[in-house]
Amino acid sequence: MRKDDDSRGRGLLALGAMVPGLTRPLLGKRSRAEATLVLDWPQIAGPLVGARSRPRRLSFPNPAERREATLSLTVEPAFALDLQHLTGPLIERINSHFGYRLVAAVKLVQGPLPRAAAGRESRAPAPGRALGRDETARLQARTGAVEDPELRDALARLGAAVYADRET
Length: 168
Description:
Strand content: 5-15%
């Protein structure tokens, strides 16, 4: 081992000293404000807006100052008009969270959100009870005539979930 290799012998480091090296590959050229906005969006925007929108980017008129940005949000199409009426209070919430005028305007871009971002469960549902022989036979009888194998399998899974949720 070379003497100039400082990977050993430094002892314990403060977590804050390691964070920039860990987050740089993930955040790239984004500022801390952008990272905080993305990570804390549900808390900053509130439960209603946070569940139906996601920050895309901050565009600063003067990148050196990092103030009075235009925040681009991806928003569920059905919620876009409602959010348009809430942009004033949303800007106030964002700026009060950061303690300065980070955002001056909001640009809405309609589009789908990732499943977890939209407030839906992203993990598979918990398995229900095992199906009995009668239920399995009924399920096969109802789905057996479907010619498309993918559709037949999807219907069989749906039927099994319905039967599993029923009380015995």
